[in-house]
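Re: duplicated header lines in exported C-alpha cells

Our pipeline writes sequence and C-alpha cells for each protein into one text file. With two proteins the header for the second block appears twice in some exports. Here is an export where it did not happen, for reference. First protein block:
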Amino acid sequence: GTWEGPALTFFECPVNESSVACSGLKAYAAEENIEISVFNPGMHSDQIVRAKVPKRAGFAVFDAAGKEIPSDYFCEGEDCEVIFESDIPALSISKFTLKSSATNAPLTLSRVDKLSNLTLSLKANSSLKVDAEGKFHLTLCGADLHCIQQQFVVEYHYYKSRVNTSYNKGSSDWKSARYSNDDGAYLFRTDEAEHPYGQLSSIEYVRGKVLSFIIMRLGTLTARLLVSPNVHEHGLQLETLTEPVDMTDGKGKNVILRLVATGVHNAGVFYTDRNGLAMQRRVFGKRYTIEQTFEPWINISGNYYPVTSAIYIENPVTTTRLTLMPDRAEGGSSLRNGEVELMIHRRLVVDDERGVEEALNEVGPDGQGIRLRLRHHILISNEAHDLQSPQRHVQNRIDNPLVILYSKTPPTFTLDGIICANATVSQHNLKQTLIPLPNAAFIYRIQNMDEAEDAEVDFLKVQQGKKYLATVNDLLCLKGKAIEIQSIVEQSLSANQDKATMVTQKMKWFRDDLVSTDSVKQSVSAEELLKTLVLDPLEIRTFHITVGTTQFDVIPEAKKQEEHPQPANQNNTPTPQIVVEHPITPLRPPHPTHIRAFQQTFQRILTSSLLLIVGLIGIMIA
C-alpha cells in the first residue's frame, strides 16, 4: 500500500467486548466523525460490517468517495453499533467514515406479545415468524418454488457439576481416590439432567434496513437473533450475551445452548466436524460399531464431542437438516431426537485432579465471573427440494472475519489492497489464503470446500510470456497492474518444506496383512499448473510463490531500515510506520503446579519402566 503524512495508529475493538468496554473508543467521545478501515481477508466481497461506536444521537455511513451507504444504528443501553452492507473486494481494505447525524437515529425496539406475533419477510418468498412464547417458524422456498416449513425453539440450560464427596482430599486414601471423576477443567461430569438457565421474560424486535433483530430476555442472559434477508446464504445468526455465572449456591455449572427442531427425527445420529473438514457420523451411546453402556453420571458427557466448525442433525426421510455453527471451539451432542446442543460456558468449584490443580473459575477485572459474547449460525436446509445447506459458505465467512481498524487518519491517507479492481471469485466453494513473506514472496493456500465434488481450477495463465495467478482473475495487483509470478513451488500443508521432498522422505508403514499404498499426491510443477488443477473434495494444496516486485516485502521495520534505507518523500519527511495496537499476552514461565505435575508423571513412568525391567530379568533367570 501507499500512504502519506504522519504516523498512523490503528486499534481494534475486541469481539467479546461491548462498545463501552472498548477503551480505544473513548478518544472519540468529542469527535464528530470516526474513520474506519475494513480489511476483508476472505474471498467473498459482499459483507455486512458491524462497527462498535459511542452512543450518539445518530450515525450516517459514507464510503471513500463520499457516497452515503444505507445503514442501521442500534443501541442496547450504552452499547451501540453501526451496521451496513458494502462490497469490499477480497483481500483488500476499504475506508469508511461514520458521521454524527440525527437523521439516522437509533432503531426503536418493539415488543412481541400474544396479540401481535412478528413476521419478517425474506428473499425468495421466504419468511420468519416468532410468537410470544419464543417459538420460531421458518418458511424456506427453493429454486423449484417448493417451500418447507420448520419450527424450532432456542433454549438455554445448565448441568450441575458432579463432585465426589466420598473421600477426603487430606485423608490417607486420597491418592488412590484422586482420579475421582469430579467435574473439572479436563473432565465434564454431571449427576443429573439439565436445569433451565434463565426464564424467558420478554421478546423484542426491531426492523432495520440491513438486519433485523429479535431479542429474547432470559434473566442474566440475552439472546439476539440477527436476521438477514438473504437467509439462504447467510443463515440466521444467534448472538448470546452472558453475565457472570452465579456461584452463590456453591455449585459448578456447565451452560449449554440447545436448539429443538420439530420433526427432525434423527434417531440418535448426528454429525460433528473433524477439525473443520469432513463431517464425522456419531451415534448416541456408541463408539463406531461398539455398543457402549455408560454409568448414569457419564451418559451425557460420554456422548459429547469436540465441535470446531459445525454440528448437525438430519431427518433421513425428509432430508431436513438443522446445523449449528459456533464461532469458537465448543463441545456438543444430540441427546434426544430433534435436539442439538453446544456447551457455551463453564464455571466450576473443584479441581478434577488431572494436573491443573485449580478449579476452572475464571474471573474478570471486577473479580466476578467472565462475561461472554458468543455468535452461532443456525442453518436449515432440505436437499430434496434444492435447498442446499450453506454450511461451507458460512464456514468460509466465519474463518475469515472482517478486521475493523479505527484510526484518526488524514484526508490524504490511502492504503491499497493486493486484489485487482476487476477480480472475481471463480468458485464460491474455494477457500483461498494469501500469507505475505519477506523477499517478495507469498504462501498461497487453496482448498476445495465441497464435500462431494471435485473442483477444477484454472491455476496459472500466461500473457506475453509472463505467468500470472488465475485462480481469482488477476489475483495479485499493485497499483492496478497484475503482478508477474517469478516462481511457484508446491509445499507441504504446513509450508515448512517442498512437497517433492516431503513425499520422498515421508515414513512408509508396512504390515504383514496390508499392502502399503501411498495415497499422497505427487507435487506438481509450474508447467503442469498451466493446465487445469483438480482438487479432490475438501483437499488443500499449498504453494510458495515469488513475485516480481518488492513492494510486498514484510521485513520487520527496524530490520528493513537497517538493510534497505528508506528515501525521504517529496516533503523530505520520513515515510511513516503503521502501528496496529493489539493487546499482546507475554509468555509466562511454567506454573509451579504444572512443573510438579510433570515431575510426578515422569516419576511414575520411570518407576513403571524399572519394575518392567526387573520383571523381565526375573523371568529370564527363572
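Second protein block, exported in the same file:
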Amino acid sequence: VSTQSTWDCYFMEGSVFKNILKASAKYGELKGFFSYGTAGFRSLATKLPLVCFRVGVFASLLSLQKKAPIGVMITASHNPAPDNGVKIINFNGLMMEQIYEPLAESVINCKDPSLSSILPEAYAKLGLTEEDRKKPGTVLIGKDTRSSSKDLAMAVCEGASIMGGGFFDYGYLTTPQMHYMAYKTSLNMGKFASLSQYGDDFNSALSAFLGGIGKTNESIELTYVDAGDGIGGRQFEELSKLLKLKMKVVNIGVPEPLFLNDKCGAEFVQKEKKLPRNFLDVPEKVKCASFDGDADRIVYFYKDTKESIILIDGDRIIALVCTTIQSLLKGIFHKDVKELPIHIGVVQTAYANNGATTYIRSVLGFPVVMVPTGVKYLHAKAEEYDIGIYFEANGHGTLLYKKDKLANLEKLIPAENVHEKALFQVLSNFLAIANPVVGDAMVNLLLIEASLCYLNITIQLWEKMYRDLPSRTTKTPVKDKFMFKPNEDETKLVCPIDVQNFIDATALKYKSGRAFVRPSGTEDILRIYAEADTQEEADKYAEDVKSFLTKYSQLRIIIA
C-alpha cells in the first residue's frame, strides 16, 4: 500500500479531520495568503490565530520526520506592537530549511478547514510511514511579550496536541534563546534543555575568557542598554544579574510593551541614527547599546551632542571581533593570519560599507566573501569556514567555529611554550562567547564587551578603527523588476548589461565610488546603494543611477 493511501485510510478511520475542523472554528477564517520567509509568517496579530494553530499541526509532523523536537517562536521582532509572527526552528537550532517552506505554506493556506485535502499529501512529502504515526511529535514553544503572543502560543500548542503530539512551553524568552533551547535539546538527546543552561553557558565562557586576561565580569564598564521595550529587557536584566554586569537597561517593556519598537530599538537607532526614547539624560560619550524587539540584533552608539549620536553598526562589530581574533592568533603563533593552517572567513553582503571590507582585508588580513542579502545566505556560508564571522549592517550576526579544527591548530604549539598555550585557551574561550546557531543581541553584547576589555579600548577608539565611506540608499519603482538580474553575490547586474555599464562608468566620476542595484524581494521596485568619498558625492551617485534607471525603464516600456 502506498504511503499516500495508508495515510488516507488512517485519517478517514480516525477523528483527526473532525478534531481539526472543530478546533479551527474558534480561530476564525484564514485572512489572506501567508508566505513564509526569514521572518516566518508575519502579519497583524488579529490575522494569525488560525495560522498559528496550523503551524502547530505542521511542526508536529516535521518533528516526526526529524525524529526530534521542533521549535516554534511567536514574535514579530522589530515590527510595531499590533503585529506578530510565528517562526519554525529546526531541531538543531537553525532556521527551518528552505525545502520545507512550500509545504508549510500549503498547509497554512489550505482552504479546507479540516485540512483533509492537504495532510495526506504532507505526510507523503515528508516521507512519513504508518509506523511514524504511532510516535508523537514534539514542539518546543516560546513567545515574546506582545499582548497577542500568549493566545497565539496557545493556538500552536493546540495544533500540536490535536495531531497527538506533545509540546513544551518555555514561556517568555528571546528568539535567540528559543533557537538555543532547540540546539541544546538536540545535544541532550531529546531531554528538554532548561533556560538556565543559556545563562550558565555564556557566563562560563565570558568568565573564563576574562579570567585568562586577568580580569573579571566586573571589569566591564557601564553600558546603557536600550531594549526596545521588547522581550530582551526582562531577559537581559536577569542575565546581567547572573553575570554581575554593570548594565543600565532602559525601555524594558514592563509591565507591558505598549511602545514596543516605538522610537527605540536597534532598527530605529540604525536607520534613523537618532537617540532612542528615554536616552536624553544619558551622559555624552558613554557607551550605549540597542537591541531590536526580539533581541537578535544589536548596535552600539554614544551621544555626540545633546541629541545626535555616533552609530557603531554591524560592520564595526565584525571589525572589532576580527581585530581581537587577529591579535590573539598573532600573539600565539607570531605569524599573520593568512600564514596559518586554518580556514578563516568573514561573510558580508553588498550593503557592507567598503571602508569596513577594506580594513578587514587589507589591515587585518582576513579574507572576505560576499553573499546575497539575507541571514540564511550569511550563516550558511560562514558554516563553511573553520572560523566564520558574519554580521549585517543592521547588527544581526554571529561567530561560528569548528572545535576539531581548533584542536588541530593547538597541536602546532610546542608543549614548552606555556604562554602561547595559555593564550590559545583565551582564544578558545573567546570563540565560545557566541551563540552558534543564530545572531543573538545579548550574547553579542558579551562578545563585544569581551573584545573591548581585551583590546583595552573605548567605544570612541573602536569607532575610529577605520573610516566609513559615506553612503546613500534609495529606491525607484519599475514596471518589471524581473528583467534586472544580479550576479550571485548581488554586487553587479548581469542583465541588462547597459545598466551595469552605466553604473561602472559613473563610478569613475566619484572618488571611492561604488554602487549596485538589486530588485526588491517583496515590491516592484529596485533598491539602489551608492558609496563615495563624501556624502555629497554618494548622494549624487545614487541620484545618477536612479535617474538613469527611470529613463531606462520608460524607454523599455515605449519600445515594448
